[in-house]
Write a structure and sequence with these properties.
This protein has about 130 residues and is α+β, with helices and mostly antiparallel strands. About 55% of the residues lie in helices and about 15% in strands. The protein has a three-stranded mixed beta sheet. A hairpin with a 2-residue loop joins strand 1 and strand 2. The radius of gyration is 28 Å and the shape is rod-shaped.
Length: about 130
């Protein structure tokens, strides 16, 4: 990974072709470390202020105390003068897409007909039930 970053850094016009906010957000994980990056995400760069989304107020408070050190680390990675201040905003983590645990056909098989002991009556009940649904 470092070889690729050295190669990209050696390209002189890379900074002109990329937005400064994109560079800072991409460098966030390296500047703060993997554990902190799991709980705080660099959202955007507004002028010279980096807006960071954190999980709760505890992370906000702890990272405020480390903001000077984080700013120094970001300057080492992306260069001086890009990030002057960091603003930490409490935003709860977003939920990803949910996977269905059971399909609709599974619900139909576990209807109240399973409580009928007589197999003939159970079959008649299910047949009538399917006609009602259709």
């Amino acid at each position: 990974m470092e070889q690729a970053s050295r190669l990209l850094a050696s390209l002189g016009n890379l900074r002109e072709s990329c937005d400064a906010g994109d560079l800072v957000c991409a460098a966030w994980k390296k500047a703060v470390g993997k554990k902190v990056a799991n709980h705080a995400r660099a959202a955007k760069l507004v002028r010279d202020r980096l807006v960071v989304e954190v999980e709760d107020w505890m992370w906000q408070r702890n990272l405020m105390g480390l903001s000077r050190q984080i700013t120094t680390n970001l300057e080492k990675i992306v260069g001086p003068g890009i990030v002057a201040d960091i603003e930490f905003r409490v935003i709860p983590p977003r939920r990803g897409p949910q996977v269905a645990t059971a399909s609709a056909s599974a619900f139909e098989l576990t209807d109240d007909a399973s409580g009928i002991a007589d197999p003939v009556l159970r079959r008649i009940y299910r047949h009538k039930r399917q006609k009602e649904i259709a």
